[in-house]
Amino acid sequence: MKLQYNSPVILTYVLLCCGVLVLDMVTGGTSTSLCFCVYRSGLSDPLTYVRMFGHVLGHADWQHFFNNVLYLLIVGPAVEEKYGSRNLLIAMMVTAFVSGAAHLVLAPNAALLGASGIVFMLIFLTSLSGMKKGCIPLTLILVAVFYLGQELYDAIFLQDGISQMTHIIGGLCGTILGFMMRKGSRR
């Protein structure tokens, strides 16, 4: 038996996240600050656009990294198999951009980094698996109620330094993109 690189987008993404965290440690946080977290900066700064996508590669520490990576590795390969590597990569880039842009507009006084928006996008894409034409999966409704309900509660009542807005945006991106990819697959 030999090892199989069975989920190229997810595995490459996890390796990139790990590499960025190691680079963060080597540079004393400078690399993450420059390229791998979103915060208010001028639109004339070219790194603003790098950060709009790069923030999903950065993590605050190993615990933050492992919390996201476990979900990525559990949910990601099935999503990649269902929707395809190319579609998954596009969905990840869209989610990164939308969550980064929303953060710049709605939370300008904080920095955003981590893969949790991507994780929530994957969870919602998974909940759409097995969707039949003309039907809304009950799993989607339950995931929305439990996950988004918890995130809304946390956003209102907790001050925990976690961006619930990014989780919600990731879930919305996963839902919208899942329906769009479903329609595209029927043509």
Mean pLDDT: 92
The N- and C-terminal alpha carbons lie at a distance of 38 Å
Q: Give the helices and strands as they follow along the chain.
A: HHHHHHHH
State the CATH class.
Mainly Alpha
Number of folding domains? 1
The major sheet is characterized as:
none
CATH fold node name: Rhomboid-like fold
Oligomer: single chain
Protein architecture, described:
This protein is mainly alpha-helical and 187 residues long. The protein has one domain: Rhomboid-like (Rhomboid-like fold), CATH 1.20.1540. It has eight helices and no strands. The longest helix has 23 residues. The N and C termini lie far apart (38 Å). The mean pLDDT is 92.
List keywords for this structure.
single chain, 187 residues, mainly alpha, Rhomboid-like fold
Précis, in short:
The protein has 187 residues and is mainly alpha-helical.
